[in-house]
Specification:
Blueprint (H helix, E strand, L loop, with lengths): L4 H25 L5 E2 L6 E2 L1 H17 L4 E4 L3 E2 L9 E8 L1 H6 L5 E8 L2 E8 L6 E5 L3 E4 L2 E2 L12 E4 L5 H14 L5 E3 L4 H9 L5 E4 L4 H13 L3 E3 L11 E4 L1 H15 L5
Parallel strand pairs: 3-5, 11-12, 11-13
Antiparallel strand pairs: 1-2, 3-4, 5-6, 6-7, 7-8, 8-9, 9-10, 13-15, 14-15
Bound molecules: D-MYO-inositol-1-phosphate (IPD).
The site of D-MYO-inositol-1-phosphate (IPD) has 15 residues, from strand 5.
InterPro entries: IMPase (IPR033942), Inositol_monoP_metal-BS (IPR020583), Inositol_monophosphatase-like (IPR000760)
Catalytic activity: a myo-inositol phosphate + H2O = myo-inositol + phosphate
Keywords: Hydrolase, Magnesium, Metal-binding
């Protein structure tokens, strides 16, 4: 029989805790193996690769028929029928990790039939852990989460993030310049998975970012959804590369509509 979301979450929690230990141990030992990926600002460290290898290895032991989509090594093997696809960001917030800023995370989600059904995000620096199963609510360290009930865009504290590509950043800066005068303020913490968890617990009213990959938002997106937020893309599209917006129901449309206007100016 197909595993339940709760069973998948249990597997994910155990693996992510071990992975988080590796990430913080490697941070304490000193950063090594720093290289760049898509651009000069897109860094990867030996820890990103080691954590991904560890998680993929652990998943293969307990769920040998599943596939893994990871940030550093891409997709593994071909999914068998009914297989689970695990979506992994070994270290989300790599730049924070590099600089010793305590805002980075291991993020792991389980997707069945194209739908994320379980997710865990853990901050190794603080030990905070967010979990969710589809239909089962979102939790931080065992405590049930509810997002903000903010209804006014002008009163909203909005998180966002920037990609690594210069042309995309120029566009993101233009969108930000249009939005900033119309909100309470903007935050850029540097790890998308944690931003989505911050929205889930009302530490941000809303969050948006263009250009996110599945591993950035799969687990955190479920945590936010299960905490009562609407998580979507633009114009009815699912959340994805084009945009991820997470906001309380009353705030989603005003934020979304403003982003559509600002995004229409064009850009990658
Ligand atoms: C990045 C972070 C950042 C976001 C970027 C992501 P990484 O992930 O989540 O906050 O703005 O778009 O690429 O590279 O540190 O795993």
């Amino acid at each position: 029989a197909a595993p339940t979301p709760e069973e998948l979450l249990e597997i994910a929690i155990k693996i992510v805790r071990d992975a988080a230990d590796t990430a913080s141990r490697m941070r304490a030992e000193g950063i090594s193996g720093v290289t760049t990926k898509s651009t000069d600002t897109d860094v990867v460290t030996a820890a990103d690769r080691a954590v991904e290898r560890q998680v993929v290895g652990a998943l293969r032991e307990v769920r040998p028929g599943d596939t893994v989509l990871g940030e550093e090594y891409g997709a593994s093997a071909v999914a068998g029928p009914g297989a689970v696809r695990w979506i992994l960001d070994p270290i989300d917030g790599t730049v924070n990790y590099l600089y010793g800023l305590p805002q980075y995370a291991v993020s792991l989600a389980a997707e069945v039939g194209g739908e994320v059904v379980a997710g865990v995000v853990r901050n190794p620096a603080t030990g905070a852990e967010w979990t969710a199963t589809r239909g089962g609510g979102a939790y931080r360290d065992g405590q049930l989460l509810h997002g903000s009930s903010q209804t006014e865009l002008g009163q909203a504290l909005v998180g966002t993030g920037f990609g690594y590509d210069a042309a995309r950043r120029a566009h993101q800066a233009a969108v930000l310049a249009g939005l900033l005068p119309q909100v309470r303020d903007i935050r850029r913490f540097g790890a998308a998975a944690l931003d989505l968890c911050a929205v889930a617990e009302g530490r941000l009213d809303a969050y948006y970012e263009k250009g996110l990959n599945p591993w950035d938002h799969a687990a955190g997106g479920l945590v936010a959804t299960e905490a009562g937020l609407l998580v979507g893309g633009l114009s009815g599209a699912p959340p994805g590369l084009a945009m991820v917006v997470a906001a309380p129901p009353a705030l989603f449309k005003p934020l979304h509509d403003r982003l559509v206007e600002l995004d229409a100016a064009g850009g990658p």
